[in-house]
Every structure is written in structure tokens, then in C-alpha cells.
Design brief:
mainly alpha, 5 helices, transmembrane, Rod shape-determining protein MreD
């Protein structure tokens, strides 16, 4: 049942990412729901499912946006970093998700 939720979640996030969120850009930087989803999935799950999720979501995003596969590499690296930090983190997982999103999003934007 969980795999079906993920299969429906990725296209819904892609539609929001491609259609709605470019309208909310600030000086050329738009919110990246795929990155936030990859961070949240990495916090809530183990390393391998998080890596597969971030790889699939970022690859689909690259295919739809005619990218050069930087999104795939960046989101897989972020997912693995979050999974590594998660093992040493003591505290609420929702605070961890919010904190890592705030820290890692500017780093990915600088890489683009």
C-alpha cells in the first residue's frame, strides 16, 4: 500500500513543482518540493528506500525539465547526508526535517 502512495505522490509533487511553484520565484530561485520531499523521506525512512525515492523523483524531474542530471546527483547526495545525520540526531524528526531543509536548500541552490 505504501508503494502506491509513493507512486501517486511523486507525480502530484511534479505537477506542483513544474506548474505552480515557478510563479513564486524570488530572484530566479523557486521552491523545490522534490528536495523537501527527499529530505523528509530520508528522515522518516531508512537509507535505501530514501535513496531510491530521491533517485526516482529527481530523475523524473530531470527528464521533464530537460536538465543535465544535476538534480539527480544533488538529491541523492542530500538524501544520503540526511540519512547519515539522522542516525546521530537526538530529538524530534520533524524538527530535524525542518532544520536540514533550511541548511541544505541554499547549498543545492549554490550548486545550480
Amino acid at each position: 500500500m505504501r508503494i502506491f502512495k509513493i507512486i501517486f505522490f511523486i507525480p502530484a509533487v511534479m505537477i506542483l513543482q513544474m506548474v505552480l511553484l515557478p510563479r513564486f520565484s524570488f530572484r530566479g530561485a523557486a521552491p523545490d518540493l522534490i528536495l523537501v520531499s527527499a529530505i523528509a523521506f530520508a528522515v522518516l525512512n531508512e537509507r535505501m528506500p530514501a535513496t531510491f525515492f530521491s533517485t526516482a523523483a529527481a530523475f523524473i524531474q530531470d527528464m521533464l525539465s530537460a536538465g543535465i542530471y544535476f538534480n539527480t546527483a544533488a538529491k541523492v547526495i542530500v538524501s544520503n547526508v540526511v540519512s547519515g545525520v539522522k542516525e546521530e540526531f537526538v530529538g524530534d524528526e520533524y524538527y530535524q526535517t525542518a532544520g536540514l531543509t533550511v541548511v541544505l536548500t541554499p547549498l543545492v541552490l549554490l550548486g545550480e
